[in-house]
C-alpha cells in the first residue's frame, strides 16, 4: 500500500463542503477523503490535491482525514484536521411593494450573528447598495422603476466568518404609463386607448368603467382596443402597467363619452296634406339631431335641430324613408329604426273618356305614383256605376243612354288608402236608340220612315242598306223620306240618333224591298201566222213574268220564270198592245208597258201553180185583203221571185231551168225585217 499522506490545510468555503490540500504520495493513484461528525461520516475519492468533500451540513464541525490508494491497497488514515463548515445562505423572499422600492426578507439562519445584503442594477449601471443587519428583513428605496436588480445576501457567524451567499434577481414594479390617449370609433362603438410605454412593463391593462360596469383589455403593446362600448354612456379610462414584480398605480382616469344612442319612439304624422311632422324621444348625451328623409325617387333632404321634432314638405304618391340620428362630440349615433311613410296617391290626370257604345264608356288616365288600385265612379241617372282595377283604364257599362254623368277616378294604396278629393269629369252618354214604328211607300222610289223620338236635341239618321248601296235621310223630328231607291232591291232600314255626346246604337233593322225592275229590252218575233215568240231582258228583283198581247180581237198571255215565251192565238194583221208584269219572290209587282205590236199580214189562200212553158210558171192565190204579196221560187239550180202588179193576185216567173224541183212560197210583203217563211209552200217539178 502507498504511504500515508499528510494534510497541508483544510477549509470550508461553502456550507455543504470542505476542501482539503496535501502533498502527493508516490505510487498513489487515488485518495479517499473522509469527513466525520460523530457517528456519521462522508467519504469522497479524488485523483489529486486539492479535493472536496461535499454533502455536509452547514455550520458543523468535522474531523477530516485522507488515505492514499493504489492497486496495492490503502494507506493508513492521515492525522485528522478539525474543520467547521460555513453558515448556510439565507433564503431570500423578495418583492417590489412600490415602483421605486424592493423589500427583502428571509428566515433565520442557524449560528448566524448577522446578515449582509447588497443590491445593484443587473445591467451594472449605478452604485451598489449594501446593508448589514441582524434582522431578517429590510427595504431598499429610491430605486429606478421597472428595473432589474441583482440582490446578494449572506450570513456571518460570531467570528465574522461569512457564510454561503444567496443571489436573487428582482425587478421593481413599473411606473404608471403617461400620455394616455383615447380614440373613439363611433361606428364600431369601440375605443383604442394608447400611452407611452413605461420602463420595465411587460403588460398593460386598460380599465373602462361606468358605474358598476367594468371592461378590461390586456396587452403587451402600447395600445389596446376596448370593444362593445354602450351608446349614450360616460366611461372612466385608466391604464395600469404590469411586470413580474407587480403593477403600477392606475393612471389618472380619462373621461370618455360615447356617441348617443339612436333615437326611439319615432313617429310620423301628416298634419296637413303636403306636410310631414317627424318627432322622437330625447336621447341622453345627444347635443343635436339630424333627420334624413329620402323619397323613393332617390331625392334626400335633412333637418338639423336641437329639438325633438322636424317638419318636412311631402308630395302625394311618394314613400319616404325616415331615419333620425343623434350627435355629440363623439360622433353620430348608430342607425336606429328606419321608418317609411307613404303619402296618399295623387289624383289621376290626363283623363280621357271614349264611348265604345251608347251605354259603355272606356275611361283612361295616366298612372300616378303610389297607386295600387283605381276606382272609377260614374254618378248620374238613377244610380252610381263603379269599376275597380289595377290598370289605368276602366270600362263603365250599363250606363243609361242620353244621360249626363259625373265620372271621378280615385287612386288607392295599401299603405295610405284613397287619394284626396279628386275633381269629377262631366260626360254625357250617347243618345238612346230610336225605334222604327212604320215604313210606308209615298210614291215612286219614295219611302217614308217613322220612329219614336226618345232623345232631346238629337239628329236622327235613317239608313237603307243593301247590295245596291246606301241611302240616307235625316231629321230632327220623328220621320224622314228615303228618295230614289232603286227598283228590284232589298234593303235593311235602321235608324240612329246623333248628338254632341255621340251616336246611339242603331235601331232594330226593318227589311224593305222595292218592286222589281221592268226589263229594258223586249223583242217579239212572229214564229207562225198565229204564234209569236216574245223575249226580254232580266228585270232586277223579278222572279216571274206575265206577258200580255191584247187587241179588240182577243188577248194572248203567258206566265213564266224564263225571260221568253211563245204566245199563240195571234190574229194576223192585227195591232196589239204589249204589257209585262214583273213579280218578285215576295209578290211585289211592277207593270211595264212597251211599244205596240202589229202581227204579220195573213198568208194567202188557194195558191195554185200553172205551167206556162218549159221554163215558166204562173202562181195564183186568193188575197184576204189589200195585202201585197211576194212569190219566191227556190231550187237547186237557183232562186227566183216575182211581185204582182198592183191589184193582181198572180204573177209569172220565167226562165226557170228545167229538170229541177222547186219550192214555191207566197208570203205577204213586210215593210221591214226578214221575209215571212211560215206561209204554206208548194212543190213544183
UniProtKB/TrEMBL annotation:
Give every Fibronectin type-III domain span.
Answer: 1-88, 89-175, 176-261, 262-346, 430-517
Instruction: Quote the InterPro entries the UniProt record gives.
Output: FN3_dom, FN3_sf, Ig-like_fold
Q: Which CDD domains match?
A: FN3
Q: What protein name is recorded for this chain?
A: FNDC7 protein
Specify the taxonomic lineage. Eukaryota, Metazoa, Chordata, Craniata, Vertebrata
Amino acid at each position: 500500500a502507498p504511504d500515508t499522506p499528510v494534510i497541508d490545510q483544510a477549509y470550508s468555503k461553502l456550507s455543504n463542503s470542505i476542501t482539503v490540500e496535501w502533498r502527493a504520495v508516490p505510487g498513489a493513484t487515488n485518495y479517499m477523503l473522509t469527513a466525520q461528525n460523530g457517528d456519521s461520516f462522508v467519504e469522497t475519492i479524488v485523483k489529486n490535491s486539492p479535493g472536496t468533500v461535499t454533502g455536509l451540513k452547514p455550520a458543523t464541525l468535522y474531523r477530516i482525514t485522507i488515505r492514499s490508494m493504489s492497486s496495492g491497497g490503502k494507506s493508513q488514515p492521515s492525522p485528522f484536521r478539525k474543520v467547521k463548515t460555513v453558515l448556510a445562505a439565507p433564503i431570500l423572499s423578495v418583492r417590489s411593494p412600490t415602483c421605486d422600492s424592493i423589500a427583502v426578507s428571509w428566515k433565520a439562519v442557524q449560528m448566524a450573528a448577522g446578515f449582509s445584503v447588497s443590491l445593484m442594477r443587473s445591467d451594472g449601471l449605478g452604485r451598489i447598495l449594501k446593508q448589514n443587519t441582524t434582522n431578517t428583513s429590510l427595504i431598499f428605496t429610491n430605486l429606478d422603476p421597472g428595473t432589474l436588480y441583482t440582490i446578494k445576501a449572506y450570513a456571518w457567524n460570531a467570528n465574522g466568518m461569512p457564510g454561503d451567499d444567496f443571489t436573487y434577481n428582482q425587478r421593481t414594479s413599473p411606473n404608471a404609463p403617461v400620455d394616455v390617449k383615447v380614440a373613439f370609433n363611433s361606428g364600431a362603438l369601440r375605443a383604442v386607448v394608447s400611452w407611452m410605454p413605461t420602463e420595465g412593463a411587460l403588460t398593460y391593462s386598460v380599465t373602462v368603467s361606468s358605474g358598476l360596469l367594468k371592461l378590461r383589455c390586456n396587452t403587451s403593446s402600447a395600445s389596446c382596443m376596448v370593444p362593445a362600448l354602450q351608446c349614450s354612456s360616460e366611461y372612466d379610462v385608466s391604464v395600469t402597467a404590469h411586470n413580474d414584480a407587480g403593477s403600477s398605480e392606475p393612471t389618472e382616469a380619462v373621461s370618455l363619452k360615447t356617441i348617443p344612442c339612436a333615437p326611439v319612439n319615432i313617429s310620423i304624422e301628416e298634419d296637413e296634406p303636403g306636410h310631414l311632422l317627424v318627432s322622437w324621444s330625447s336621447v341622453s348625451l345627444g347635443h343635436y339631431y339630424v333627420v334624413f328623409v329620402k323619397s323613393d325617387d332617390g331625392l334626400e333632404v335633412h333637418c338639423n335641430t336641437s329639438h325633438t321634432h322636424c317638419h318636412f314638405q311631402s308630395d302625394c304618391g311618394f314613400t319616404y324613408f325616415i331615419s333620425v340620428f343623434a350627435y355629440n362630440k363623439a360622433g353620430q349615433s348608430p342607425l336606429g329604426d328606419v321608418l317609411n311613410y307613404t303619402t296618399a296617391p295623387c289624383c289621376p290626370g290626363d283623363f280621357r273618356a271614349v264611348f265604345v257604345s251608347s251605354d259603355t264608356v272606356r275611361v283612361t288616365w295616366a298612372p300616378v305614383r303610389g297607386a295600387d288600385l283605381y276606382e272609377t265612379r260614374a254618378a248620374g241617372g238613377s244610380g252610381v256605376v263603379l269599376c275597380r282595377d289595377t290598370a289605368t283604364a276602366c270600362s263603365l257599362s250599363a250606363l243609361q243612354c242620353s244621360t249626363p254623368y259625373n265620372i271621378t277616378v280615385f287612386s288607392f294604396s295599401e299603405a295610405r288608402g284613397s287619394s284626396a278629393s279628386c275633381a269629377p269629369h262631366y260626360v254625357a252618354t250617347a243618345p238612346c236608340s230610336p225605334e222604327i214604328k212604320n215604313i210606308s211607300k209615298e210614291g215612286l222610289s219614295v219611302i217614308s220612315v217613322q220612329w219614336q223620338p226618345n232623345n232631346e236635341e238629337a239628329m236622327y239618321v235613317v239608313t237603307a242598306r243593301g247590295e245596291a248601296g246606301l241611302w240616307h235621310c235625316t231629321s230632327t223630328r220623328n220621320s224622314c223620306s228615303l228618295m230614289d231607291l232603286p227598283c228590284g232591291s232589298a234593303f235593311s232600314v235602321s235608324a240612329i240618333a246623333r248628338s254632341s255626346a255621340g251616336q246611339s246604337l242603331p235601331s232594330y233593322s226593318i227589311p224593305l224591298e222595292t218592286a222589281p225592275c221592268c226589263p229594258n229590252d223586249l223583242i217579239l218575233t212572229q214564229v207562225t201566222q198565229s204564234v209569236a215568240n216574245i223575249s226580254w231582258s232580266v228585270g232586277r228583283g223579278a222572279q216571274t213574268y206575265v206577258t200580255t198581247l191584247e187587241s179588240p180581237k182577243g188577248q194572248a198571255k203567258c206566265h213564266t220564270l224564263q225571260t221568253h215565251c211563245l204566245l199563240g192565238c195571234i190574229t194576223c194583221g192585227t195591232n196589239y198592245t204589249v204589257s209585262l208584269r214583273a213579280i218578285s219572290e215576295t209578290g211585289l209587282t211592277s207593270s211595264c208597258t212597251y211599244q205596240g205590236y202589229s202581227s204579220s199580214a195573213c198568208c194567202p189562200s188557194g195558191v195554185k201553180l200553172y205551167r206556162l212553158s218549159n221554163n215558166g210558171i204562173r202562181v195564183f192565190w186568193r188575197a184576204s185583203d189589200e195585202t201585197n204579196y211576194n212569190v219566191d221560187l227556190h231550187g237547186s239550180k237557183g232562186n227566183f221571185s216575182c211581185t204582182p202588179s198592183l191589184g193582181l193576185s198572180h204573177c209569172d216567173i220565167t226562165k226557170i231551168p228545167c229538170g229541177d224541183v222547186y219550192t214555191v212560197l207566197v208570203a205577204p210583203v213586210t215593210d221591214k225585217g226578214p221575209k215571212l217563211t211560215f206561209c204554206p209552200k208548194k212543190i213544183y217539178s
